[in-house]
Amino acid sequence: MKAALLKRLKRLEEVQATENLPPPEFQVGYVKRLGAEYGGACHFATVGRDSDGTYRWEERPGPEPNDRRSSIPPFRVVLSSAEDELPMSAEP
Questions:
Q1: 8 Å CB contact between 26 and 75
Q2: Strand blocks (E) in 1-92
Q3: Can you tell me the distance from the alpha carbon of 9 to that of 11, in angstroms, rounded to the nearest whole number?
């Protein structure tokens, strides 16, 4: 795991150096999950940001829209409530 993370960071640094991209954005926030009965594809949508910088996201049905502003997506730390149930998949 550590080796994979270091490899990924090295690759991001190389991409940033060659393409003059801004550094990756680091986001921390909470997500409101779809109900446990939903089992299809879903994506995160940013719904707000608190005054302390904490993001608020929600899961939305369907694939993510293709409107990327940068070739490097943000690094997200996603927190959810312990009461949220994760959807159970039919296949392991």
A1: yes
A2: 26-32, 42-49, 55-61, 75-79
A3: 5
Number of helices (H), then strands (E), in the chain: 1, 4
Provide the β-strand partners of residue 75: 26
Assess contact for 33 and 83: CB atoms under 8 A.
Answer: no
Q: Cα–Cα distance between 12 and 17 in angstroms, integer? A: 9
Domain residue ranges in the chain: 25-65+75-82
Query: Residue-wise pLDDT tens for the chain (92 aa)?
Result: 788 888 888 887 777 677 776 777 788 888 888 887 888 888 888 899 999 988 898 988 888 777 655 555 677 777 776 565 544 444 44
> 0.85 exceeded by the pTM?
no
CA distances from 91 to 39, 82, 88 (A): 11, 23, 9
The two tokens of residue 61 are 């049905």
